[in-house]
Amino acid sequence: MNTNSDFLRIGIFYDGNFLLHASNYYNYIHPQRRRLSLSGLHNYIKIRVAEEEEIAPRWCQVVESHYFRGRINAMEASQRGNQLYNDRVFDDIMMAEGIQTHFLPLRNIQGKKEERGIDVWLSLEAYGLALQGKIDVAVLIVSDTDYVPLFRKLTSLGVRTMILSWEFNYVNDDGVRSVTKTSHDLLSLATYPIAVHDEIENGLKQNDPYILDMFVKNEPNRSTDNSQEEFVSDILSINYDGGYGFIKYPNNNLYFNIQDVLTDFTAMAPGDTVAFNIERNPNNQQDVAKNVRKI
């Protein structure tokens, strides 16, 4: 509980890869079909810190926010369709929210791109700010046991720690089971362990405005009827058994069903260029692709 009259300074530290897994789950698997909103997430964090510290939310302010992730180089990104554009869009979102980005190049380890050093860099940045007395509460969106020493160091400096955890598993489009979870060692060390997956499910049932605000909103000025206008982009992924797929399209990728494909569905593959119309799904109020045809 905060006993100081001054406001509480919050530092937020993102393991970008973990955040991406959580956001992808809500965008592609969860019925919500939307990505996590960084601005909504920050507002949620301020509210949760205020509740745990038993003070008014206005006394809680995010003074530091940092995002860490491995990244492919520009040449590789230019060869992956809209990857460069999508990276820039996300950079703009983080810049608008005041999040400092920290990227390291992905390394080729036995033919596979892997991150190296992200956990060390995040830990050094968080510990350095705590050592300088610039934050009172460190909010960490991380999952690996590698961060256990950081939690212990922050605690030794008198900095409270909050961890946002997600735990879920599902079978992805390739038929591979994907598991996302947070280390229980981290949960046991955190001052305030928050099971966000549970809070989101409960909040959605109750139409909690702070939970609803954690997801990207539909574009308000965009027409809900684009059925006559044709768009062109590339297929992101296809689930042949399920009879559906996704097309690359900012800000959220577009879902399409086999019933909405005008050409041979089985002849389509990720990376193929397709033409399509956009319509609003009346059930979840999300844009979907219609009249999809390979070109």
Which key phrases capture this entry?
single chain, 295 residues, alpha/beta, 5-stranded antiparallel beta sheet, 9 helices, globular
Q: How would you describe this protein?
A:
With 295 residues, this protein is of the alpha/beta class. The protein has 9 helices and 15 strands. The strands form 4 sheets. It has a 6-stranded parallel beta sheet with strand order 3-2-1-6-7-10, sandwiched between helices. It has a 5-stranded antiparallel beta sheet with strand order 13-12-11-14-15, with no helix packed on it. Strand 8 and strand 9 form a beta hairpin. The chain is globular. About 3% of the residues have low confidence.
Kindly summarize this structure in a few lines.
With 295 residues, the protein is of the alpha/beta class. It contains 9 helices and 15 strands.
Residue share in β-strands: 25-35%
Low-pLDDT windows of residues: 219-227
The helix/strand series, from N terminus to C terminus, equals EHHEHHEEEHEHEEEHEHHEEEEE
Fraction in helix: 25-40%
Distance between the termini: 61 Å
Backbone CA Rg: 21 Å
Total number of helices:
9
Report strand order across the widest sheet: 3-2-1-6-7-10
What composes the largest sheet?
Answer: 6 strands, parallel
Described by the principal axes of the CA atoms, the overall outline is globular
Question: Mean pLDDT score, rounded?
Answer: 88
